[in-house]
Amino acid sequence: MTTVCRIEMRELALPLKTPFVTSAGTMDVRRTILLRITDSDGHTGWAECVALEHADYVPETLASAWQTLEADLAGRLLGAGWEHPREVWPLLCDAGQENAMAIAGLEMAAWELAARAQNRSLADMLGAGRTRVPAGIALGVQDDPARAVERVRDCLARGYQRVKIKIMPGRDLEIIRAVRDALGGNAPLSVDANGAYSLSDTAPLEALDDMNLLMMEQPLANAELEAYADLQSRLRTPLCLDESVGSLEDLDRMIALDAARVLNLKPGRVGGFSVSLAMLERCARYGIGVWCGGMLESGVGRAHNVALSARDEFTMPGDLSPSERYWVQDIVSPEWQMNASGEIAVPRDRPGMGCLPEMALIDRVTVRSRVLQ
Ligand code: MG
Question: Which of 4, 68, 288, 294 lies at 20 to 30 Å from 343 by C-alpha?
């Protein structure tokens, strides 16, 4: 029986190497919540709550997640015992879907703790057998076609197995066409609009349908799944949903409606590993493409994504960039590295997430902290 007796929360301010631009705005510093839980035997578990500062991606924010962790979720976990970490999500899920990122932070820390306590890798704990996982990369919104071509070319030369370009109205067709023309019809490209297009003007999306994209991610603003089903019926390119699928119920509806044919699964966004494992089972059963998305995580969140990505159900490279893509220095050791074939090695021979938090660096970037026990 595992009983958590201490929860440490830290808000970190991590300067990005280069600003990241999406249809919602520009980020230069990634503020994130790092969690460390300790059980009564002294085992620890680390995880990252991936909430963002602003509510334009999903309504849950770093501020609301911090408040929920501190005022609600910590109390549910402290003192509650469990035999297996899959029992943790049911302890926390009453906090509601709107707090799924906060829930995921503690839930994933529980899995990491369990892996360390059993001297197993987190991947092994998750039933994930791959030894290497393929990496894709997400590029922010591009405003210059020639520069976009150079950036995509550079990513492919480094080995990335898929390049996703963020798009928005006016920064879409011209950019993608330039990349296609320069790099050929088969370069593994996808786009992500983060909901920047309206259902009343899908002409740019229909034009992109001729670009042989692997998928179009989350194109529509404030759209119900029925609207996605309507759009999917008019496109050959598979749609991929990210923010629109927050729960297993959403995924079941997506599949039933044929609203999209690919899922961008982010364990830190959907409530953690238990929900993610259930989603992977559904994807495999119904032939839905699935890959692991990124949330500009530090090396701790990256570790959890890499471990889950070692599951066989994943059909496409995840957004699993190595540490040097985002950070001058990552907060874990060793840092995450990608080989020349665009693969990240799964640290199966080390307990837990397979890397160690660099406490001196973490102390320097901590802007607030709280210990609950
Ligand atoms: Mg996305």
Answer: 288
